[in-house]
């Protein structure tokens, strides 16, 4: 069994939507989002069921899931809570400025209050006021955080402002590593966490999406420091959300949560390498993926110490 790691949280927050649909307000800069996605009650019901099954599978693996309901009709992307908050060792919580006004309604005080009740929270740093200045940083979508080496990887986009990133890194003691990244059509990739995943002993990254050769080499070298295996992803694998994964600490060791589509996109050699470091846990979320995000976006990891006697709910 792998030892517990600061990179792999034991608990997550999930939001179960009751009125899910791909959000037209976010489609302009999210090329991963389906352009002619179905809507209506069947789609909402399918997304609700996918979250329910994903939570059950995570809990069966020994991961604590704090599952919140969203019965509202005006928060279609609420299933992706990792964009509006993150948690950090030492008792710190960050709240983020969101690019789309439609997504700012996703921030929930009841989630923050649960964190305070169940975990040791010392402070909450709220960056959401930067929205008034047109400055955005969409949490662990905009940043992929290496909690071991203390690096914040960030691809430039409408959703990742370097001023906000520098402020976050100063507060939370991360080294910023910023780069440009584009998809196969040359469009900027909207969130860093669809491009890459950092685990304790491995990283998944589409190095070919970084057009500047020198910066590409620097990112690869930084990921490899400390002995991490760097597993490269193709544009097709990125498009199938193979980079949108998260390492978690389960009952029997580390698991890599990713979508069934993402796992199917990986080749046998890539799977074999990943299985050296974590048990692969594929989750069926095809409806939710219509909105341009996948499993990593659905899981807000909790990097906080639990209060004694506080049970997961």
TrEMBL record:
Name the UniProt record assigns to this protein: Amidinotransferase
Organism: Labrys wisconsinensis
Coiled coil: none
A family per Pfam: DDAH_eukar
Gene3D superfamilies reported for this sequence: L-arginine/glycine Amidinotransferase, Chain A
Lineage of producing organism: Bacteria, Pseudomonadati, Pseudomonadota, Alphaproteobacteria, Hyphomicrobiales
InterPro entries reported for this sequence: Amdntrnsf_FN0238
PANTHER family: AMIDINOTRANSFERASE
